[in-house]
Amino acid sequence: MRNFLIPGVCISLILGSGCDTNVSFESDTSGSSESFVAGDSPFVRVSPSELQELAQPEFLLERAHTGQRRVTFYDSNGVRTSFIERVATDGHGRFAVEPVEALTPLNTDFETFQLQQISQQGFVFRHRDFAIRDLGLFQENWTLQLLGDNERVAGRLCDRFLAERPGVQNAPGYQVWIDGKGFVLAYRELNSAGELLSEIRYLTYNDSPSQEVLDAVYWHEPDIDETLELDWTQDLEPQLNDARIFQPRWLPPGYELRRATRDTIGEDRWLRLKYTDGVESIFFAVDLPDLVDPGGVDIDTPFTPQTHRPDRVMVFEAGRTAAVEGTLRGREVMAVGKTTADLLLDLVESALP
């Protein structure tokens, strides 16, 4: 049994539940079917040497574009939530993602839903969608299969690939549409039975928006005041003035640490760790106390229930996204990823001293 409390909470992190309505989806067209491991053979238009840039959010950030995307998610009961969102990048690191129309009923009014989505747009833009987030781990853990070519998305010709993690139970797969410039214009997320979990598809795409259009965009403002990049290949505690940190000692198969930062938000400091299997990501964050914490207890003194609040976490789930947030050993801890709540709880528990 876990040594902390887990209230039975299940709320939407990103999407609310909706009811099914008649929304049409383009049917797939089959082309050639040639299997290969990423990096072994040339693709139709995207070569292995270009995989480093393929599908990465940073790749899109370097290019100005605007467009509208249809976003569709299915919950565990098969109920669909679908809406249209507007997306923009200015080519200089700024981005914006905003829902503009609901295609299915929501569990709240659209204005509230829109505000919830806008507050999550940093996560949405960087982590919600299919991306190759680490080339080496992608090549180790994933395979690619060419399914078809000359398929149109938003008026642009694309090649269609299937990305899968072989040998991992219940691992999702992705059908991905990529144009000749390396842009991911659509993807479908499938479960191990081949059932659709989510779909993102550009309906319109403009890779040369006018400056007037870009000037009218309300760009995302990060809520982190300062970020200090840490050397994730080395011991982190000496880089944090020997502050005692919590760091997971157990990870899901194929996941490895690929980024560590010390983030400052107001007067609070956080250690944030990013783990990935090459595509999916899991984030773990823990607050960093000063040399003496607000209760006057030296951080080298063992935490006890008498000097700190009791251990308690909350679990949130929405589709395949789960989050754990709470207080453990007197420290604020958070974890989020496209995985199960049980897996996140195991990861968090492994970080406890």
- Describe the sheet with the most strands: 9 strands, antiparallel
CATH architecture of the largest domain: Clam
Total domains, how many?
A: 2
What is the helix content? Answer: 10-25%
Give the spatial strand order of the biggest sheet: 1-5-6-7-8-9-2-3-4
The CA-CA distance between the termini, in Å, is 17 Å
**What is the overall number of helices?**
6
N-to-C SSE series? EHEEEHHHEEEEEHEEEEEEEH
Mean pLDDT: 78
CATH topology of the largest domain: outer membrane lipoprotein receptor (LolB), chain A
The level-1 CATH class of the largest domain: Mainly Beta
Low-confidence stretches: 1-49, 291-307
- Beta strand %: 35-45%
Which of globular, elongated, flat, extended, rod-shaped describes the shape? Answer: globular
Please give a handful of descriptors for the protein shown.
6 helices, 2 domains, mainly beta, outer membrane lipoprotein receptor (LolB), chain A, 7-stranded antiparallel β-sheet, Phosphorylase Kinase, domain 1, single chain, disordered N terminus, 9-stranded antiparallel β-sheet, about 350 residues
Tell me about this structure.
With 353 residues, the protein is mostly beta strands. It has two domains: 182 residues, outer membrane lipoprotein receptor (LolB), chain A (Clam); 125 residues, Phosphorylase Kinase, domain 1 (2-Layer Sandwich), CATH 3.30.200.100. The chain has six helices and 16 strands. The protein has a nine-stranded antiparallel β-sheet. Strands 10-11-12-13-16-15-14 form a seven-stranded antiparallel β-sheet, covered by helices on one side. Strand 11 and strand 12 form a beta hairpin. The N terminus is likely disordered.
